[in-house]
Amino acid sequence: MKRAAEPIGKTLEAVFKDLTANQKSHQQLILEALDGFLDKEELAHIQPQALRDKALTLRVSSPARLYVLNLKKNKLLKMLQEKLGKDIISEIFLRVGPVKQT
After folding, report:
1. Low-confidence winner among 11-15, 18-22, 75-79, 92-96 (lowest mean pLDDT)
2. Which of 92, 93, 77 shows the shortest CA–CA distance to 33?
3. For residue range 17-54, what is the model confidence (pLDDT) as tens digits?
4. Are 74 and 17 in contact (CB under 8 A)?
5. Closest of 93, 88, 91 to residue 70, by C-alpha
6. What is residue 97's DSSP assignment?
7. Terminal alpha carbon distance of the chain
8. pLDDT value of position 91
9. CA 27 to CA 49: how far, in whole Å?
10. Within a 13 Å sphere around the CA of 1, how many CA atoms are in the beta-carbon half?
11. Residue 87: CB partners within 8 Å, gap ≥ 6?
C-alpha cells in the first residue's frame, strides 16, 4: 500500500516552524536568566541581539553601560551556563547599539 506523497513545501514549513520555536525558547530562557542576574535599570539598557554557534550577542545602549556590563561579563556567562547549560552559550559579545524599550 503506497502513501500519497506530501508536498515538500509542507514538510519544510514544519521543519522551519520547529527550528524557530527552539530558537525562541532559548531567547526566552536567556531573558529570564538575565532578569535574575541584572537589575531592572540594567535590563532596560540591554537587548539580546543574536544567539549563533553558542555565542550570545547583547546590544547595549551606551559605551558607559557597555563598560559596566563588561566588568560583569564573566560572572554573567557562568550564571547563564549554570542555568541554561554550556551547550547553549559558550561566550558573550557586547555591542553598542539602539535598544528597544519594552
Report:
1. 18-22
2. 77
3. 665 555 556 667 777 888 888 888 888 898 888 888 88
4. no
5. 93
6. -
7. 55
8. 93
9. 9
10. 0
11. 54
